[in-house]
Amino acid sequence: MPLPRPRTREQWTAAPKRVKAALELHPNLETPAKEGRQRMLLIYAWNEFGEGGITAPTGGEKAMKLEAVREVFGQ
Fold first, then answer.
1. pLDDT 10s digit of each residue in the chain, 75 long?
2. Do 64 and 9 form a contact (C-beta atoms < 8 A)?
3. What does pTM read for this prediction?
4. Which of 56, 28, 57, 58 is nearest to 44 (CA)?
5. How far apart are the C-alpha atoms of 11 and 14, rounded to whole Å?
6. 15 to each of 9, 21, 42, 49, how far by Cα in Å?
7. Is residue 62 within 8 Å of residue 6, measured between CB atoms?
């Protein structure tokens, strides 16, 4: 079975953008904090290379996925 083709940066960046929009639209996705509530996002599967859930840098994509997350959620 062939490996799936890597997504483009634009395609991959669309996913964290959708998550960010959902966090802004739905306050019930927040978690309690010392003062009020805090938006929270858990990025799962840092290194699930065998299962395709990879966020860690790779030889082909380099750090593109991490850079996209920083682009969307960074300060």
1. 665 666 788 988 998 899 999 999 998 888 888 888 888 888 877 777 777 777 888 888 899 989 999 999 986
2. yes
3. 0.73
4. 56
5. 5
6. 10, 10, 13, 19
7. no
For the chain, the residue count is: 75
DSSP the chain: -PPPPPPPHHHHHHHHHHHHHHHHH-GGG-EE-SSSEE-------TEETTTTEE-S-BTTTBTHHHHHHHHHH--
Could you tell me if 41 and 23 are in contact, meaning their C-beta atoms sit under 8 angstroms apart? yes
d(CA 66, CA 13) in angstroms, rounded, equals 10
